[in-house]
Amino acid sequence: MGLFRRKKKEPEEYKVPEERIQNILENGVPVEVAIGTHGADEIVAGSMMGTTGKLIAMGNYGKLIYKPTILFMTEEGMRFQLTGEIFRYTDIYSLDAPYNVGMINAEFKLVTTSGEISLRATNPNYMAIRELFGRFVALCEQRMAEDEAAAEKQEEKDKAESDMDRLIRLGELHERGLLSDEEFTEAKKKLI
Prior knowledge:
This protein has three helices and eight strands, in the order αββββββββαα. By secondary structure, the chain is α+β, with helices and mostly antiparallel strands.
């Protein structure tokens, strides 16, 4: 042990300040976006058509070229200022952890039903995006559970109403003499 040897300090986990989250919700967050050229073997001089059908990026020999934009996150989904297209949270499979973290930027992927979107943001912005994404996923799961419960309740109500309608029709048929007492009682037992 030398005189200048120091104990290694564990890195502290970055906590996104709530005012940063609110600022992103109001104004969006700056990111850079690119869609892969899927191994293009020639120089593309211009914009390429991405998996979303929007003109977004160009690439040289399949290399990503990032374009600066603003990412807006609402309760409905994510929207890039560059294209205006909204990716609803129900259409997003994942927001992958950074696959390349530098001193300043984190590169990560947004995986949607229409393909993968490569993104780059400063590390604090990435952490804020991840925090918001987690909140919105939880909100979507809660809404889906509420929708399922409401659908089940409506289904039970519809079944109860249809059973009541059948009982009324059976009563009318019995009153007209089209159903005997035994047939009416038997049919009523099946419904109740």
